[in-house]
Amino acid sequence: MADRPVRWGFLSTARIGTRVWHAVHHSGNGVVAAVASRDKAKAEAFIREHQQQAAFAEAPRALGSYEELLADPNVDAVYIPLPTGLRRDWVIAAARAGKHVACEKPTADSLPSLEAMIAACEQAGVQFMDGVMFMHGPRLKTIRALLDDGKTVGDLRRVTSQFAFHGDDKFFAGDIRMDSALEPFGSLGDLGWYDIRVSLFAAKWELPQAVSGRILRAGRRPASPGDVPVSFSGELLYDGWSAGFYCSFATTFHQWVHIEGTRGGVYWDDFVGPQRGDVARYWIHREEKLTEETGDPSPQGQATWLYRNFATLVQSGKRESFWPEISWKTQYVMEACLRSARHAAPGTLIPIERRGRKQ
Q1: CB 113 within 8 A of CB 82
Q2: Tens digit of each residue's pLDDT (9 = 90 or more) over 28-70
Q3: What global pTM score does this model have?
């Protein structure tokens, strides 16, 4: 497969697919081959719109069902942005059809669901990866080196992060992220997933000893069977240091992280993703540093790096277990934070079994 681009199929016309379309277009080693919707006219409209923005030499095929896409021999990998509550069965079906899988986050509605998804991908010999784009840009590699050099930050003492935006009345009344059947983790899954992931990154993927969480505000859209977290704060406790995070649908937009140690700190104010046209930046001891990474859509954007790196793995014929493993750890910690928040005494410490995923 190394001699041809990876052929992507989109399982839905969700609006986040616009960013992924551009990422695949810029990747240099992938093409969008097909887009599926339960309404074929929606798939056709999605393709027309996006071909005008970033055209592939051969326009993708519009398909009228997800099953048709998974049965298509001209699709190598699928992008799955379906709601979290619906994702498990389609990831498993894609794996059994021999398709590599990239899916949005949070990855699953429960840890057992995620374990079943990963197991299906392992059994089929296909790659699984979640859609956390900041993991793939060159900036994170630079920051990893700074954290590990023993001089810039020293011994880790505190990680603090916040990812939030202020939803309007339309958002709270109708967005699927306010529906417990479709997105059961609310802001914790949609936004806190990134906070937990960057905390685990700082910890070099070591699980915390314990976690705690608080739901500061909850809500639901009219059709939702239950409430979801709207504003959430959490703590991850390690030996000698801790990580705290805040995520919310009800706070002005922020996406920052500060990693502090005995010698200094590293701060960046756009860790989830630089805004369009921006250059990714970070600060060391208040001195600003710029990187080669840029906002999407661009050849050096985080989304582009994700889909370029994914396609490189597929072309190599090898699977990388690191990616499903960190999805599992993020899901594990997220659900433990939520259990703490829903305990009879909110904020109760939840011990973490410091292990890897059951094989």
Answers
A1: no
A2: 999 999 999 999 999 999 999 999 999 999 999 999 999 999 9
A3: 0.96
Please state the separation of Cα 178 from the chain's center in Å.
18
Q: Name the token pair of 10.
A: 């989109």
**What are φ and ψ of residue 353, in 5° steps?**
-75, 110
H/E segment holding residue 245: strand 242-248
- pLDDT tens for each residue of 112-138: 999 999 999 999 999 999 999 999 999
Cβ neighbours for 257, distance < 8 A, ≥ 6 positions apart = 159, 160, 161, 162, 195, 198, 267, 268, 271
Tens of pLDDT, residue by residue over 148-200, are 999 999 999 999 999 999 999 999 999 999 999 999 999 999 999 999 999 99
Distances (CA, A) of 166 to 187, 251, 273: 11, 5, 17
Q: What single letter denotes the amino acid at residue 143?
A: I
CA distance 334 to 234: 9
Let me know the angle formed at the C-alpha of 117 by 33 and 325, rounded to the nearest 5 degrees: 100
Per-position b or e across 195-207, b if 16+ CB within 10 A of its CB: bbbbbbbbbeeeb
- 351: β partners: 210
User: What CA–CA distance (Å, rounded) separates 159 from 320?
Assistant: 27
- Mapped onto helix, strand or coil, the DSSP state of residue 255 is strand
The label of the residue with tokens 């498993």 reads: 92
